[in-house]
Amino acid sequence: MSDAHAHSIAFVRETELPPAPPPTAETGAVKWVRENLFSSIFNTIMTILGLLIVLYLLSGLIPWIVNGTWEGASIRDCRETLQGSGGGCFAVLAERWPQLLFGFQYPDYLRWRPSLAFALLFLAVPPVLFFKLPRWMLVITALYPFVAYWLIWGGTAITPIFALIGVIAGYFAFTRVERQGFVLGLLAGVIVAAIMWWIGGYIAAEEPGWLRIEAVPSREMGGFMLNMILGIVCVSLSIPIGIVLALGRQSRLPVVKGFCVVFIEFVRGVPLITLLFVANVVLAYFLPPGTNFDLIVRVIIMITMFSSAYIAEVIRGGLAALPKGQYEAGDSLGLDYAQSMRLIVLPQALKISIPGIVNVAVGLFKDTTLVSVISMFDLVGMIRGPILSSTAWTGVYWELWAAACVLFFVVCYGISQYSQWLERQLRTDHR
Amino acid sequence: MTTMTDPPKAEGFRIGQLINDKRYRSYTFQFIALVLLILSFGWLINNAMNNPILQRVGIDFGFLSDPAGYDINQQPIEYTSQSSHLRAAIIGAINTLIVAFLACVTATIFGVIAGVLRLSNNWIISKLMAVYVEMFRNIPVLIWIIIIFTVAANTFPPIAEFRIPRDGSDAERGLLFGMFAATNQGVFIPRLVFESAGWLVIGTFLASIVGVFGLRRYARHKLYSEGRIVPVLWPSIALLIVPTVLMQLLLGSPVGVENPEMGRFRFEGGFLMRPSLIALWFALSIYTGAFIAENVRAGILAVSKGQTEAAAALGLRPGRVMSLVVLPQALRVIIPPLISQYLNITKNTSLAIAVGYMDLTGTLGGITLNQTGRALECVLLLMAFYLTFSLAISAIMNVYNNSVALKER
Amino acid sequence: MKNSVLLGTLAFAGLAAAGASAATLDDVKARGTLNCGVTTGVPGFAEPDANGVWQGFDVAVCRAVAAAVLGDADAVTFVPTTGKTRFTALASGEIDMLARNTTWTFSRDTDLKFDFVGVNYYDGQGFMVPADLGVSSATELDGATVCIQTGTTTELNLADYFRVNGMSYEPVPIETGAEAVQQYLAGACDVYTTDRSALAAQRAGFENPDDSILLPEVVSKEPLGPLVRHGDSEWADIVRWTLNALISAEELGVTQANVEEMGSAAGDNPEVNRLLGTEGELGAMIGLDASWAKNAIAAVGNYGEVFDTNIGEGTAIGLARGLNAQYTDGGLIYSPPFR
């Protein structure tokens, strides 16, 4: 039968052949490796070089971390424990971590307060960052600065409460008077807020004991906490100022425009460190004799100036990116300048500028380390000053700097990842 | 209701118009702004005038001509401790420019390499570059400067290993090719020394460079007008080397090389790149390089794929595609952020103070300020310098930027 | 309105507005604490310990003044200053006095408008070199690399010394003492120069102190002392005589242990009685309690005790009294009489 069949007709397969697996060299890991690592001679060389670099880095890093010791009271103890095994002397972190985080002057039994303020940050910031959260949560954000101020600086609760009342009263005054014109509304708001603050300052001076927790003077802030305070305060202050400067730079009024241009270009033209020198050694000359700001406040003023100029430029980019039609639409609806800016232009321009603002914020946060140059004890200042000069830890550099790198990296990388996520979220126009 | 074209009734000017009439309102606002501005500046200046310290000490730039009294290690121009504070400030300014220039060049190189490699198909390489970029972008540059300075002091071989042992044996130990030595007191490299005829050799070399440009121009002209390809590479190299070498030989080697020689404590002669310079230079380049890498990557990604494919369809070789089609378009995107990175480098050189590099912040804003106590004057001069320099660079770069900008119809 | 805005902002930002008016004593009393400028950390002289409490020789002067004025040695706010910021901090009223191993020089006393109230440590600039460098005198340092802490008179003294002796050197300016030591230990400079007291203090912290030697040359006079703003003589008197009280106490045998007993009733020695307020009205003459000096001595001990506990031979710093012995022991420490 088979014979007959074979002679009468050529072989025809009647069923579909199951697909054969691809050659092993073309599948899975092997294919991936071939295509991604060894596709050409040049590529192979690069791969080997890359592997060597990775190996070299790991061979130094792993023993350092694995063999490291976390116990000991001084570098001598470390040397004894390690016996030249190449491990790190992480005991310095175990002993000095409160100093790295809070500075050496913040009372140790009060450290829970800034820690709590920091924890609350995770409640206060998400409503701003993630638009999908319910809007009422913004109230938490609005309350946060006052709570955090009270927790970190302490003192009577009257000060932050009246500061809050002042802001609320100012806002209500603004909405009341706004119908008569934006500027008048703003003026009314500012006056009402100032009056409330003034009353608050008066009451706080009269009743310093009301709801009082122990006060901590500004100069006792230090460590990473100082970097966080400076970063957060200055960025939040500089965003509104930046918006005003950006609008001023776009303005048709030559005086306003001129001032904004000169201010922005001046601040962007000089290094931050010279501004810090100003805060440190010059600013005192320009204040009325008798007023004596804390160094931290002077520094906050200068850093805020610095970052608001950069943020202004970012926002100006956002303003420029808006199609002209949007401005004209506002005009054609009969909106005045304040209305068209507030209702049409700024919401769109700010949306475009958010990634840029986040970049400025990260840069600024990193730049807060510069205050160590003017003898403030932020994280870098703590390491360079009290810790490295103490006789117990002379010569422990790598562990301390590694800790500083990790702290900054975690925060900055987190923010920049968020910024990239946001950029994807906001890319609504062309998809 | 009157028609729109009616002129406003000539009922004279009312005060209310200052607020309500759009024509006058801007003047009102400007006037108020101006008054506020003048008032606040006046307030600041008045405070300064009434400041008891300032009243006693006064503002006086005369200290600039007093002898400085301190020594500076890196002296691009002649300086002794008896020179004036002004001269010390000038040296500082030159040192700022030196490190800013060096860092700009190397940061660009690092940035371009890392940016291109990050787009590479090679998984390991692109991930390594990503790690590099993220590491350096997210950690403050001040920390990097200090870390690299510490590394330079602790990992380069101690200079003691290069010293001539007391028994006098093994004198040339460690000198690479008898010319270079990397020690923890700095990297010693040979220096060019010029005899009087040296400028002839230099002149020849400069003339050769001009010649090379001429040759390339000629080649391009030939290519466009006659379609003939004139070889450029080898003739350029020859043009660059041959006349200079001939001149050098003819004149009996007026340009010599001075090698570092071990003295009592350290190498004498030659040129010393100090650890502070190396740390600042390297840290700024590698830090800013990470930012430039991102700009470069964004620039290359911004050129649409269709451009590459169109160029390939025209039959251009991959190298030509890159140099004639992709790069010119990518550069347009890369240049503006690159300019601001250069400005950032210049401003960040002021962190030299952390490692004791004698830049302007170290001399004028550091030791001079300390020794004379003239804080206001020193800080003013310091700011004026940086401001002038930043504005000058952005002006120059804007001119270049305009020249490569898209010429729209 | 402007004022109220300012006030509101002040209250809001939680500023401590302290007056820099002429009467420093009133300010200090009103504030309840003394703002005292110190270094950012020199072992033995001023350094926060692991608990953040400032300790040291200069710190003791601050505490003594606080005890004399306010009766509480802990009522001091220590303001760390660098070489650059110390004078501005004092001039602007941020601090009431500066006790930061600052050299008494002509121009600082006159041109910068400060008053040095005395000398609490006679120092001089010296050199430290590794023992195996084979150098035994500073005159052999021609061509060496020298680490200097910037912002001090040291760099001027150094420049003068090498110029006068016709030698060259490579200066390596360093911002902080800790980093200078780090560079020196790594061999990035052959010589480390600063005040001899600081050299000794830092050498004591080395892993192998014997690997480094101090050269015999002292290239400058460095009388270190506390200073105050020019123009407030009452305050200057208080700081000056508090320091003198500590010095006299050592001379007169008053110690931290016996000051309570000696000060409780008038004794045989009239000068002790005047010092401790059991006789005469010395305290009232400078606007303080009669027990001002007693408080100061009870808080920190007499000059010799302060020296011994912070930098003396029994400590890790291990400085000998030398020039800083009482004049009766051949030193320069000498207090005018309390009369």
Automatic annotation (TrEMBL), chain A:
Location(s), subcellular: Cell inner membrane; Cell membrane
All residue ranges annotated as the ABC transmembrane type-1 domain in the record: 224-419
Residues spanning the membrane: 41-66, 112-131, 181-204, 224-247, 259-287, 299-322, 343-365, 396-415
Domain of life, source organism: Bacteria
Keyword vocabulary terms for this entry: Cell membrane, Membrane, Transmembrane, Transmembrane helix, Transport
Classification via InterPro entries: AA_ABC_transptr_permease_3TM, ArtM/GltK/GlnP/TcyL/YhdX-like, MetI-like, MetI-like_sf
This protein's record includes keyword Transmembrane: yes
Main location: membrane
Membrane topology: Multi-pass membrane protein
Pfam family, one: BPD_transp_1
GO CC annotations, alphabetized: ATP-binding cassette (ABC) transporter complex
GO terms classed as biological process: amino acid transport
Matches recorded under PROSITE patterns: ABC_TM1
GO MF annotation terms: transmembrane transporter activity
Family the UniProt entry places it in: Belongs to the binding-protein-dependent transport system permease family. HisMQ subfamily.
Name under which the protein is recorded: Inner membrane amino-acid ABC transporter permease protein YhdY
Organism: Jannaschia donghaensis
Lineage, top ranks: Bacteria, Pseudomonadati, Pseudomonadota, Alphaproteobacteria, Rhodobacterales
TrEMBL record, chain B:
Compartments it resides in: Cell inner membrane; Cell membrane
GO BP term (any one): amino acid transport
Membrane topology according to the record: Multi-pass membrane protein
Domain named ABC transmembrane type-1: residues: 93-397
Keyword Phosphoprotein annotated: no
Signal sequence coordinates: none
A molecular function (GO) term: transmembrane transporter activity
Principal location listed in the UniProt entry: membrane
PROSITE patterns: ABC_TM1
Keywords noted in UniProt: Amino-acid transport, Cell membrane, Membrane, Transmembrane, Transmembrane helix, Transport
Transmembrane segments: 27-46, 89-119, 139-162, 199-219, 231-251, 271-293, 379-400
GO cellular component: ATP-binding cassette (ABC) transporter complex
InterPro entries assigned: AA_ABC_transptr_permease_3TM, ArtM/GltK/GlnP/TcyL/YhdX-like, MetI-like, MetI-like_sf
Entry keyword Chaperone: no
Pfam families for this protein: BPD_transp_1 (PF00528)
Similarity section: Belongs to the binding-protein-dependent transport system permease family. HisMQ subfamily.
NCBIfam families hit by this protein: HEQRo_perm_3TM (TIGR01726)
Protein name in the entry: Putative glutamine ABC transporter permease protein GlnM
Organism whose genome encodes this protein: Jannaschia donghaensis
Lineage per the UniProt record: Bacteria, Pseudomonadati, Pseudomonadota, Alphaproteobacteria, Rhodobacterales
Gene: glnM
Automatic annotation (TrEMBL), chain C:
Coiled-coil features, chain-numbered ranges: none
CDD domains: PBP2_BztA
Entry keyword Signal: yes
Keyword Lipoprotein in annotation: no
One biological process term in Gene Ontology: amino acid transport
Domain Solute-binding protein family 3/N-terminal stretches: 33-262
UniProt cross-references to Pfam families, sorted A to Z: SBP_bac_3
Keywords: Signal, Transport
UniProt signal peptide: 1-22
InterPro entries: Bact_solute-bind_prot3, Solute-binding_3/MltF_N
Family from the record: Belongs to the bacterial solute-binding protein 3 family.
Name the UniProt record assigns to this protein: General L-amino acid-binding periplasmic protein AapJ
